[in-house]
TrEMBL record:
This is Thioredoxin reductase (NADPH). Keywords: Flavoprotein, Oxidoreductase. The keyword Oxidoreductase applies. GO terms for molecular function: oxidoreductase activity. It comes from the Bacteria. It comes from Maribacter spongiicola. It holds the Pfam family Pyr_redox_2. Residues 5-123 form the Cyclic nucleotide-binding domain.
Amino acid sequence: MIDARFPELTNQQVEKLKGYGIVENFEIPTTILDYGDKRYDFFVVLEGGIKIIDPEKDKGNVTIHGRHQFSGSSSILSHRAIGVRGETLKNTQVIRIKPDQLKKAISKFSDISDLLLNAFLLREESLKNSIQGVKLIGSEHSNETYAIRDFMDKNDILYTFVDSDKDDGLKSILEAFDLKESDLPVMINSQNEISIRPSIDEIGECSGVRLKLDDEIYDVLVIGAGPAGLAASVYASSEGLKVLTIDSNSPGGQAGKSSKIENYLGFPTGISGRDLANNGYIQAQKFGCTISVPHRVESIQKNAGLYEVNASNTSTLKARTVIAATGAAYRRLPLDGIEKYEGAGIYYSATSMHANMCKNSEIGIVGGGNSAGQAALFLANYAHKVYIIIRKEDIGAKMSDYLVQRIIACENIEVLTNSNVVKVDGDTYLEKVDIKQKDTLVPNEISYLFTFVGAKPCTEWLDNIIDTDAKGFVHTGLTICDNALNSESEFSQRKPYTFETSLPGLFAVGDVRSGSVKRVASAVGEGSIVVSDIHKFLAQDKFATTTN
């Protein structure tokens, strides 16, 4: 049976690909892919083979690509660091194709595109289970360590976690590298290079998730890579526009934190938010979109007809149009000292990493929406007991019925209605949670608390320069207040487009937009539709430039 991760190209497909690269010969074993390379080439084997090796293992052969098989994974499209090494066998002949040329071939030939991308996705999934990646050493109860794990986990950066609170061999590891516990968290790669207390920015750069952005002018700058932002990226780039997408943390937004989305059209058995985001991430790059994280936008202004965006870790970004797709974030519970426990017992998402952390423990989930329900059902497979804590009387008030019915049927989930968390406590991490149901304290042994309440728009970077509603969500199209439309702007000649804000050429989609339906499907819909508004704006802007 043919392994779908390692298919063979047909003779016709190989001939097509020859036009995008060069043929090379290797008489002796030669390393052509090296661990940690961020920009590496794609190879098709004509004769001989390429041995793929995991450098973290003593006998680390992953596979051998034979005749008409090919190297690589989806990281080749994004210039992310490769987690394996590739070495030719004796007397090997290959086609070497540069990443940019590979993208052109994928764009032109659908049969090659389908074969390669399917194999790339399957390889990525299997690599998660077989490749160890870098070592991260730190305390599971440290919010600094958690921030690193969270970023690496959501960006699919392969790593092995060593919990300094549990690992018996920690002392010998620290001694071998002349480290102290005060140096933690520490990252160690396969070349035994050490990074003490690395920042998220450093990890983004080293892994290749964050790109060095050139001083170019983009047709579209998408700020935020949740479902709305990724959809806009896919549709805009597939229609030939030059697109840059940035995000402050990782692709997926709030949806990326969902363990399982079951009511999204086309996925009858459901799909995790992370997988949905990863597919969109690859799909956008397939069409030529540039995606880079982390970049936190600090300010935006318009100068000489172009938007100039100042963001962390890069020079000023310039674009003809901008799409705000920054979404919304869950609010902190109004409790004294709660920030102390964020990442050390209090969390705002529920992923497989969190599930492994809270095995056989009692956990609390605050919130009555779909995200809370999905998290509760997912974590109930690992935790001893799950409490869902809601202020209202009816859990079905904001949650889809299919989730409500499953929660009722789950033996280790208890719903606490008319309830609030009134206090959190602990020395260096969360150890105690006080819950009041009406006026009575609820006995519990919760040591992990997940909150999914009170989303607020992520619009700080806009600094009140556009029209919003009372809660800060962005007005677009016909909802923009008349007094917010500058009579001296082009809005004196036309009405704002459907997803356009009170600033011409600045658009808003998804959860950040006032009146949006907080669902993945609607966010994807808005992200796709806004591209037609972009085309209209660019067309009239080009006309204005030509006539002037």
